[in-house]
Amino acid sequence: MNRVVKIGLLAAAVAMLASCSEYESKGNSAYDRAKTAQGSQKRLAQKEAYIYFQKAVQADPAKITIQLRNRFLEMSLVRAEMVLNDGTATNDALTLYQKQDIDPLLNGDVKPETHDRYATFLTSLADSMFAMGRLTDGFQLITKAADVCADKAKFGHVRDSIVGNKAQEFVDKAKNEIGPDLAKNSDPVALIRAEFFVQAAMLYNKDLAGAKDLLTQLRIKNLGTLSAYRSVFVDDLPDTTVFRAVNKYYFFMAVTKKNGDIPTDVLCFNYSPNAQRMLPQCFFLVDENGKEYPATACKAPPSFDMLDQQKKTTVQLKFPPISGKIQKLYFKGLDGSMGEKWFY
């Protein structure tokens, strides 16, 4: 490298440091004014401080002072809180503040109160997501708040409380569908909705008291009914991500006749993207230990050996002797489409 090039690079580095120092100085001046200003003047000074601190950070990300890091994060949170308080929880600016300004700079040099302030902001944003029915987004934000906070006990308790409350809400919805006596409820729509709600609750708290037993009772009750969850939610479809996590498959089955515990007649509804062949090798019983037992025979009505999309048919199945308790009936189409019907 010749002398002229070295001098040029040195001059550029000096200029960068000078600009970084100048931006930080101007940001500090605005920051100090914001501490004593009121109303609109305070907001203008905070915005000015945010802009200059951001320029200083971007000018030399490798040499951010502890003071600059803390003050920029403080002003970034002020801006984010302002947007959220204005009632615009879905504003793209909130994502940018988190991903571009706050998350990359959050480390051990940041004051504990700033960590907790960020966690409080994330918790408030989560509340807005819950209010809009965006449960998955809300839970992700609550989990993040518990991760970034300094006060782990406080925000861990907040997270556990919110998650527990939401899980209980799903169970309460299930019980509302069931009514006072599950044994006397013969409404298939209500019972399938209840089955969905209990599984949704267990996504967030798999150990929720009574949920597993309730799900078992519902699966036994619903064995002869298609668990086609999309068909039982018309105007009140739950959060999309939650729904997809429960409604994983699109080939539905109901056991309409058994020989002892072994299903012999199975109603099938194909909601998968392709027509499905009704072949023995596509149907399996799975015992409580996870062992699979493929069907040895499958008889479909004439013209239904290939089940078209959104069509139903009943097939007659034969299985080999089963050594354990049947856990579920499983379908795997030639194209990889899957379905399952749980026995308990």
Report on the structure:
- The chain is an alpha+beta fold.
- The chain folds into two domains: 6-158, Serine Threonine Protein Phosphatase 5, Tetratricopeptide repeat (Alpha Horseshoe), CATH 1.25.40; 249-344, Immunoglobulin-like (Sandwich), CATH 2.60.40.
- 54% of the residues lie in helices and 15% in strands.
- It contains eleven helices and ten strands.
- The protein has helices spanning 3-36, 39-59, 66-85, 92-102, 112-131, 135-148, 152-178, 188-204, 211-221, 229-232, 240-246; strands spanning 251-259, 262-270, 276-277, 283-287, 292-294, 297-299, 306-307, 311-318, 326-332, 338-342.
- The longest helix has 34 residues, at 3-36.
- Residues 4-17 have low confidence and may be disordered.
Summarize the structure.
This protein is α+β, with helices and mostly antiparallel strands and about 350 residues long.
The tally of strands reads 10
Strand content: 15-25%
Count of folded domains: 2
- CATH topology-level fold name of the largest domain: Serine Threonine Protein Phosphatase 5, Tetratricopeptide repeat
Highlighted features:
344 residues, alpha+beta, Immunoglobulin-like, 4-stranded antiparallel β-sheet, 10 strands, elongated
What secondary-structure arrangement, pairings included, does this model have?
Blueprint: H1 3-36, H2 39-59, H3 66-85, H4 92-102, H5 112-131, H6 135-148, H7 152-178, H8 188-204, H9 211-221, H10 229-232, H11 240-246, E1 251-259, E2 262-270, E3 276-277, E4 283-287, E5 292-294, E6 297-299, E7 306-307, E8 311-318, E9 326-332, E10 338-342
Antiparallel strand pairs: 1-2, 2-8, 3-7, 4-5, 4-9, 6-8, 9-10
